[in-house]
C-alpha cells in the first residue's frame, strides 16, 4: 500500500511504539489520528509533531479503548475529520499481570473490537476502499506458552 495521502488511526499513539508508528506514518505522507486515554501525553505529542509536520495532518482524540462507545465514537470522529480511513493500528497495550482483567480488556478485547471497527469502515463490501489493520502483540506470548507447557509436563509427573 502507498501510505502517502492515506488516513491512519493509531491507538495508544501518544507515546512509545504507538508514537513511533505515528511519526513513521506522518513521515511517509499519511494523515494520522492519535487515540490515547492520556490527554496530557496526547496533547504534548500532537504539539511536538506539529513542529515537524503540518498541524492539520494530525488530530488527537482522547479515548479509552476499553470503553466501547468511546472507541466507536473515535472511529466516527476520524471519518468526520479526515473523510476516510485506510490504516488501523491497534497498538494500545499494558503489561500488568496484577490487574489481569483490565489487561485482557486492553490487550485483547479492545484489539478485537478495533479490528471489527476497522472492517466496518474500510471493507470494500461495506462501501469502504479496503485498508490495512495492524495488531500489535508481544513475543512474551511465546515465552509464556513454553512455560505453561513445561509446567504441565512437570505437574503430570507428580
Ligand atoms: N515495549 C516493549 O518492549 C513491548 C514488547 C512487546 C509488546 N509491546 C506492545 O507494544 C504496544 C505498545 O507498547 P509500548 O511499550 O509502546 O507501551 P507504552 O506504555 O510506552 O505506551 C502505551 C500507550 O498506550 C496508551 N494506553 C494504555 N491503555 C490504554 C487504553 N485503555 N486506551 C487508550 N490508550 C491506552 C498509554 O496511555 C500509552 O500512551 C503494546 O500493545 C505492548 O503490549 C511492547
Which keywords apply here?
binds nicotinamide-adenine-dinucleotide; globular; disordered C terminus; 5-stranded parallel sheet; alpha/beta; Rossmann fold; 50% helix; 158 residues
The name of the CATH architecture is: 3-Layer(aba) Sandwich
| Relevant CATH superfamily | NAD(P)-binding Rossmann-like Domain
Helix and strand content put the structural class at alpha/beta
**Shape type:** globular
Q: Total strand count, please? A: 5
Straight-line N-to-C gap = 54 Å
CA radius of gyration is 18 Å
State mean pLDDT (0 to 100 scale). Answer: 92
Oligomer: single chain
Q: Could you name the CATH topology?
A: Rossmann fold
What is the top-level CATH class? Answer: Alpha Beta
Q: Which series of helices and strands comes N to C?
A: EHEHEHEHEH
Numbering strands along the chain, what is their spatial order in the largest sheet? 3-2-1-4-5
Main sheet? 5 strands, parallel
